[in-house]
Amino acid sequence: MPAHAVFARTPFKSTLTGTLLAVGLCLAPPAAHAQLASDAAGTTAQSPSGLWLTTPYPAFSAPIGEDVTIDLSLANRGLPPQRVALSVEGLPEGWQWQIKGSGKPVAAAIAALDETVDLSLQLTPPENAVGQTVNFTVAARSEDGAMELPLTLTLTETMPAQLTLEPELPALRGTARSTFDFQVEVANDGQEDTVVNLLAEAPPGFQVSFKERYGSQELTSLPLSAGGTKNLEVSVDPPENAEAGQYPVMVQATGGDASARTQLVLDITGRPDLSLSGPGGRLSGEATAGEARSFEFTLENRGTAPARSISFSSSPPSGWEVTFSPERIEEIASGESSSVNVSITPSDQAIAGDYVVSVRANGDGASDSESFRVTVRTSTVWGVVGLGIIAAAVAVLGVAVTRYGRR
Amino acid sequence: MRQREGSPFTGLSTVALKEAADHMTSARIHLVMLLVLLTAIGAVYAAIGQIRDTVSEDAFLFLRLFSTAREPLPSFVAFLGFLLPLVAIALGFDAINGEYNRRTMSRILSQPIYRDGLLTGKFLGGLLVIAICLLTLWLLVTGLGILLLGLPPSGEEVVRGLAFLLASFVYAGVWLAVALVFSTLFRSPATSALATLTVWLLFTVFWPILAPLIAGALAPVDIFDPTTAIARVEVEQVISRLSPNTLYGEMTLALLNPETRSLGLVFAHQLSQALIGAPLPVSESLMLVWPQLACMIAALVVLFTIAYVAFQRQEIRA
Questions:
Q1: Which keywords does this chain's UniProt record carry (chain B) (predicted)?
Q2: Is the CB of residue B287 less than 8 Å away from at least one CB of chain A?
Q3: What span, in angstroms and rounded, lies between the C-alpha atoms of A304 and B284?
Q4: Residues of chain A with CATH 2.60.40.10
């Protein structure tokens, strides 16, 4: 046993005769406490010894409609353990109280030497007690004396739920094909739990969905406890044909009577989208080996921004020649189309049949390619040669007939 | 020389129709045609079974009927390539010398019929019989196909089938002309028959063996010069195309397999980005076989001319 405790015990026994003191010590923390001690002040500069019943907030207010829980602690410094009976006095009619230690209702507690016992006082106010200020005391009685801890409680109206919506980045920029993901924090600043319904007002064609951040499930509502916050992801999917421009999306959260709204802005930039199509929409044609054949292709810009500096390329079979006229188109406005003549010359050694020639248009940020099927026809020269051979044979026959046919 | 009086073709149709009628009633032709008919039906029936077992979908099902083979039988086309010359030889090997042997030649020519008319009539009569046989066979095969496959042939298949019929007809005509030439040249029918059969055996059996040998002699391959290998292949192709069997085989290949794009040597660069297996249009297939067909028609005309010249110069008082 430490020396100072022995030293402190003797005066406690000899001088104290059940005096009740409730004093604030200059060395103690600025907290309400009830002390049962012998050498109140002055005896020593060492830490005080004695038995205390304390609470951090002796005067406070609480919302009505709920049980009020007050944290108490019974501290023993330098005294032998002793039984302390606990009770609450001075509560008006209709109030109920209970002291709990480690979750169980208790009526008395023992604090070991230099230990602290945590207790909680649970008060159940009557329903009509709004605005009342109640003064009551927690009384602790030991065999050496009694302590009182006076407390003041004011019951107030409960604060209703109050919602705020806070977007992290309220304006995003992208193309009509991208998905815009806004991070929004919804907070309940009130003192009541609530269920938040999520709504969005978007221009027609825009799809808005709510998700938990890093979650995959779409939400329509979510429970939000008092003082709680939730991070949401608001995904906006614009229609692919959306014109370039700024589009506002209003996001609203409502829960009970409270609601909050915030505006998100989508800044959609246009993009060109090229589409190449063959003559008359067909992707096949005929050509004769060794002879140039011209096909009129149509290049359409289906995007939302003009397509610029479009050049053409092709990958013909070996020995083939493919030329474009014009070789380059400077600009096709959105929604406009332009025609380009593709001249295809099959190799003069090409054999009859179908070949694939891929034709490609490359613009700034947009391109399209098509596989064009060319049916090669062989030249009819050999047909004429065959006829010539037959004609020669018939001529020989004719000569024979004129020479020998006279008998 | 005095000018000939009247048309040289007087009595042509009479001779041709009589010749055809004689053939149609002769036991020799009955036997040969029975052989052809039985083998053809067997081949087609086997082909239908094969098609039913293996083909799920084909745009040219009726053409497969002609070209599909099922072990141990060869395909209909292979049968025709082998047997059509036999039919033609049977029809023509004693066309002229048979008349001498029966001592009827001077009797016929004492009628108001020119020699031109007689020879042409004999040839046309044989061709008529061949045409009737082939048309019957073709209709039989197509009918069997419709009956057993349950599908009508498409327009393109009909066009290709008719072109195949024409090719077979010209092929048989060439062999008829060969037989006619030998029957004119030799007085004995046995000799002319043997001579014709010799030519037929040469082209059918030995030509595929001889062609590479002759090509090897004409265009030796230098292993350090790949162009000589190409030259060798080309020479070999030219030599093998002297045989009507080769020409007929190439024609049936191009007509009955629409995927055939070329009958000659094809280099890889000619096939770059080509859609292998895409069928050729009918017109292109016809263009492909036209040189072969033209050569066969020309050969037919030249052979007939030889027979004509030989016959005109012959002494017929026998």
A1: Membrane, Transmembrane, Transmembrane helix
A2: yes
A3: 46
A4: 3-156, 163-269, 274-377
Q: Which CATH architecture has domain A3-156?
A: Sandwich (2.60)
Beta bridge partner(s), residue A323: A343
A120 in reach of chain B (CB within 8 A)? no
Residue A340 distance to chain B (closest CA, Å)? 23
The pLDDT of A263-283, averaged and rounded, is: 88
Residue B309, min C-alpha distance to chain A (Å): 6
Q: Is there a contact between A270 and A226 (Cβ–Cβ < 8 Å)?
A: no
Q: Under a CB-based contact definition with an 8 Å cutoff, are residues A186 and A165 in contact?
A: yes
For residues A208-212, average pLDDT: 91
Nearest CA in chain A to B8: A405
Pick the CATH number of A274-377 from 3.10.20.740, 2.60.40.10, 2.30.110.10, 3.40.640.10: 2.60.40.10
Contact B309 A386 (CB under 8 A): no
Q: Is the pTM of this model over 0.90?
A: no
Interface residue A386 vs chain B (CB under 8 A): yes
Q: How far, in Å, are A219, A293, A319, A356, B226 from residue A345 at the CA level?
A: 60, 6, 9, 13, 29
Q: In chain B, where are the structural domains located?
A: 12-312
Q: Which residues of B touch A398 (CB under 8 A)?
A: none
Give the pLDDT confidence score for residue A142 in this predicted structure.
84
Residue A69 contacts residue A89 (beta carbons within 8 Å): no
The alpha-carbon radius of gyration of chain A (Å, integer) is: 47
Tell me which DSSP letter residue A279 carries. G
Q: What is the DSSP letter of A232?
A: E
CA B32 to mean position of chain CA atoms: 16
What is the distance between the terminal CA atoms of chain B, rounded to a whole angstrom? 23
DSSP result, A12-70: HHHH-SS--B----SSS-SSEEEEE-SS-SSS-SSPP-EEEEEES-SEEEEETTS-EEE
Task: Give per-residue pLDDT as tens, B273-304.
Answer: 888 888 888 888 998 899 999 999 999 999 99
Interface test with A, best of B105, B180, B184, B273 (most A CBs within 10 A): B273
- With a CB-CB cutoff of 8 Å, which residues 235-264 of chain B face chain A? 261-262
CB contact under 8 A, A390 and B298: yes
CATH architecture of A163-269: Sandwich (2.60)
DSSP sequence for B95-129: TTHHHHHTT-HHHHHTSS--HHHHHHHHHHHHHHH
Q: Determine the Cα–Cα distance for residues A229 and A318; give it in Å rounded to an integer.
A: 67
ipTM above 0.90, yes or no: no
